[in-house]
Amino acid sequence: xxxxxxxxxxxxxxxxxxxxxxxxxxxxxxxxxxxxxxxxxxxxxxxxxxxxxxxxxxxxxxxxxxxxxxxxxxxxxxxxxxxxxxxxxxxxxxxxxxxxxxxxxxxxxxxxxxxxxxxxxxxxxxxxxxxxxxxxxxxxxxxxxxxxxxxxxxxxxxxxxxxxxxxxxxxxxxxxxxxxxxxxxxxxxxxxxxxxxxxxxxxxxxxxxxxxxxxxxxxxxxxxxxxxxxxxxxxxxxxxxxxx
Length: 244
Prior knowledge:
Elements: H1 7-33, H2 37-79, H3 82-98, H4 101-113, H5 120-144, H6 148-165, H7 168-181, H8 184-200, H9 206-210, H10 213-243
Helix pairs in contact: 1-2, 2-8, 3-5, 3-8, 4-5, 4-7, 5-8, 5-10, 6-10, 7-10
């Protein structure tokens, strides 16, 4: 799907993606669930509204959001110095994560199921800072020509070390948060901007240098949430020792 796609192309794409899910649900409804008509009507209405929302969102992404993001990336590389680009990377990553619906749903559910032990606001801020830092690192990769393999291997080694020292509940949340952070905001805004940066940098390859940002965004929550778990564990032990 490219930026010239019409609304009909988007409708076909969304219907093709959602139709198997609807059929699967209707089969279960007929054989096992057997919801009453009033409840079934609300569910079907919700599916319809969700489908219309996805159609409008994707059409806006394909025709406006991604092309504009690519042009902004090209402008930044052409007109701004490298450190300013890195700073903008942190700000954009932070704001995109704050605006990501999947991240907000995740932090809300984690707070509910942990009975408040994992605070939703603290998790949201931690995730936003982490993604912002790694988006800045991704832009530094393009601006300064950093080695992607060293970044990603070093990052996962650090994550393994942190996982060994934090509570396993934080490990589970960290990996789910990595999936939630790589939602439509990150893909449509940040990935397009990265390819724009690489496209405007002399000697850079948009395919080799521009992509990889999603891998960094997925890694950021793993490191920062497990890091938060280590800090909380240390603070809890210190509090226990002080009480003794």
